[in-house]
Amino acid sequence: MVDSYSLNKDARALEDAFFAEQNRKLLDQLQEAARTAERRTVLKAALEVEDEALVDRLMELGMNVESVVAFGLVPLVEVAWADGEIQASERKAILDALAAKGAEPGGIAYQLVQNWLQAKPDRALLEAWRHYASALGEALEPERRAALKRAVLDQTRAVAEAAGGFLGLGSKISDAEQAVLDELEWAFGE
Q: Rounded CA gap, 102 and 42, in Å?
């Protein structure tokens, strides 16, 4: 026969195990919420957008910081190479954008961009970007697609304007750079 002391001890052990499991689940939920909030903050900063719904939708689609950084940097590099060489002001604008996205000097993204600034990336990189932008555009609601497109093109246009035209005269954006901007815009579809 079981005495009341043993029964109470077993009941307490059961309660402890139950509440430990509940606490573990709550702690896991809290940690996941913190990771999600951090990811949202980093994505907002990397995209340079304030649209919470857009960031949430991109997170639902599986975009991570690395894909956002690559997605934002490929157009900058492409427009900088549009005229066949990268100007010092374009290089600075790209590196400033890279820093704004949180890339650390010596980090993988930074090294990758440094390589792209030394030698023009293969056309396949832009093609991959265009396919990704198109698929992403199809997955987003029209207003979210427009916000993402605006963010990417505004950053890219800033790099195109960085060179300032020939001797500071005329249009700040060359015909070759405008052609790249048009191609990037077209990739988002409408």
A: 8
| Cα gap 81→78, rounded to integer Å | 5
Residue whose C-alpha is closest to residue 126's, from 178, 180, 87, 175: 180
DSSP calls for 78-131: HHHTTTSS--HHHHHHHHHHHHHTTPPTTSHHHHHHHHHHHSPPPHHHHHHHHH
Q: How many domains would you assign to the chain?
A: 1
Inter-residue contact 48 to 123 (CB < 8 Å): no
Return the number of other C-beta atoms located less than 10 Å from residue 119's C-beta: 8
Rounded to whole angstroms, the Cα distance separating 106 from 64 reads 20
Mean pLDDT of 159-180: 77
Question: Closest Cα to residue 74, out of 127, 8, 33, 35?
Answer: 127
Q: What residues make up the domain containing 153?
A: 1-190
Taking alpha carbons only, the member of 23, 67, 25 closest to residue 43 is: 67
Cite the DSSP H helix spans in the chain.
4-47, 52-60, 65-80, 88-100, 108-118, 123-139, 142-162, 175-187
pLDDT digits (tens, 9 = 90+) for 52-108: 888 888 878 777 777 777 788 899 999 999 989 998 999 998 988 888 777 778 877
Q: Which two tokens stand for residue 58?
A: 């991109």
Global confidence as pTM: 0.69
